[in-house]
Write a structure and sequence with these properties.
- By secondary structure, the chain is an alpha/beta fold.
- It has 14 helices and 16 strands.
- The strands form three sheets. Strands 1, 2, 5, 6, 7, 8, 9, 10, 11, 13, 15 and 16 form a twelve-stranded mixed beta sheet that branches. It has a two-stranded antiparallel ribbon with strand order 3-4.
- Strand 15 and strand 16 form a beta hairpin.
């Protein structure tokens, strides 16, 4: 296992969030900590579907957030990325007007990119014909464009990447960003994930495979990770962006550091297209790799920000993984009880919340955990936030295709 001297710490110096729990990090954090239910309701765009509940952001005004000229040209997923990135960069105290843009990278994650624009223009094609399709469709739907627009916004001329590892995309992005810093490719990385997936085709696909909750008439109680009555996830939209720097650079400029991203691990189940390996054998490779990369032993981890989707299979498999590697000691939470499951943005949102947990020394509770499944033999934080001495935490993400990604974060 890697020793402490070999560990590379990437400092989280800025955080931006756009979620159903709130627009902006402060509001989102306060709602997540309160955990008074799922921030879900009936989504107007899904009104005609049997599954119409989702964690959407009705108060988000793209014209106000990024400017009308950009808003009508960009997909909603890019709107969220730009808003979260602007907050994160501002929060970091860095000045894009003064930095060397050739040393600034952008790495974002997304599962489906601009699918909302694709669906809208497909309907235009069917109704009005090919000459009515927008000439902006391709840059709207291309999965890389959220990162491209963030780079344009901030003059970031370094590597520009979008990772697509399904529901692990945001975590993969943050891990990749840290690696760019470690390799000396850049000095600053704007990283995270974004998703705008509350559209009829995507939600219908998830519903048809049986992945969504049946609690459509009571959205506030619908996402219930680790609860005995969980029956599926609540789809969500949103984004989170983190600014990463080398820890030494952040210290040198006197920046506030929320936490360090100290380890990253990834693996593939090579098991099934949608179901997780029930024993979590390959997920264990990712978790142990993240711990080794951070120079941490399993008994030094006090907290797990779980993938915790509220689906029967995922929560059970993740429980077996956590118990096998970390035992029943760490305090576990799933923020999806509040914010739902935002696919490619989920890991980034959870990385941001984990960094805030380390900074505030406060573990958010898991919403709607009324009766913990007796087979979930974990210390799941419920009912109210828990003040705790957290020096090391892990954030798990697992995605379709057997994608596993884990971050190890440590207190700054």
């Amino acid at each position: 296992m890697a020793g402490a001297a070999a560990r590379f710490d990437a400092a989280v110096t800025g955080i931006g969030m756009v979620t159903a729990a709130g627009i902006g990090t402060r509001e989102a954090w306060e709602t997540i900590v309160a955990a008074e239910g799922t921030a879900a309701s009936r989504v107007p765009a899904l009104a005609s579907l049997p599954a119409s509940a989702g964690c959407w952001i009705p108060g988000y005004d793209a014209d106000e957030a990024i400017g009308r000229r950009k808003a009508w040209r960009y997909d909603r997923s890019s709107h969220f990325a730009l808003t979260a990135a602007a907050e994160a960069v501002g929060d970091s105290g860095l000045d894009p007007g003064a930095w060397d843009g050739t040393r600034v990278a952008v790495v974002l994650g997304s599962g489906i990119g601009g699918a909302a624009s694709w669906e809208k223009q497909h309907n235009v094609l069917l109704k009005d014909g090919p000459l009515s399709v927008s000439p902006l469709l391709i840059p709207m739907l291309a999965v890389n464009m959220s990162a491209g627009y963030v780079a344009m916004q901030h003059g970031a001329h370094g590597p520009n990447l979008v990772t697509a590892t399904a529901c692990a995309s945001g975590t993969t992005a943050v891990g990749t960003a840290r690696e760019l810093l470690r390799q000396g490719v850049c000095d600053v990385v704007i990283t995270g994930g974004t998703e705008a997936c509350l559209i009829p085709s995507i939600v219908s696909g998830f519903a048809q495979m049986g992945a969504l909750t049946g609690r459509q008439d009571d959205p506030r109680t619908a996402s219930r990770p680790f609860d005995a009555d969980r029956d599926g996830f609540v789809p969500a939209e949103g984004a989170a962006v983190l600014v990463l720097e080398r820890a030494a650079d952040a210290r040198a400029r006197g920046a506030h550091v929320y936490a360090h991203v100290s380890g990253y691990g990834a693996s593939a189940d090579a098991y099934h297209a949608t179901a997780p390996d029930p024993e979590g054998t390959s997920a264990e490779l990712a978790l142990r790799a993240a711990l080794d990369d951070a120079g941490l032993s399993p008994d030094t981890v006090q907290h797990v920000n779980a993938h915790g989707t509220s689906t029967p299979l995922n929560d059970a498999a993740e429980t077996r993984l956590i118990r096998r590697v970390l035992g029943d000691r760490p305090a576990v939470t799933s923020v999806k009880g509040v914010v739902g499951h935002s696919l490619g943005a989920a890991g980034a949102i959870e990385a941001a919340v984990t960094a805030l947990t380390l900074d505030r020394q406060l573990i958010p509770p898991t919403a709607n955990l009324d009766r913990q499944d007796p087979r979930i033999e974990l210390d799941v934080v419920a009912e109210k936030a828990r003040a705790a001495d957290v020096e090391a935490a892990v954030s798990n993400s697992f995605g379709f295709g057997g994608q596993n990604a884990v971050l190890a974060l440590t207190r700054a």
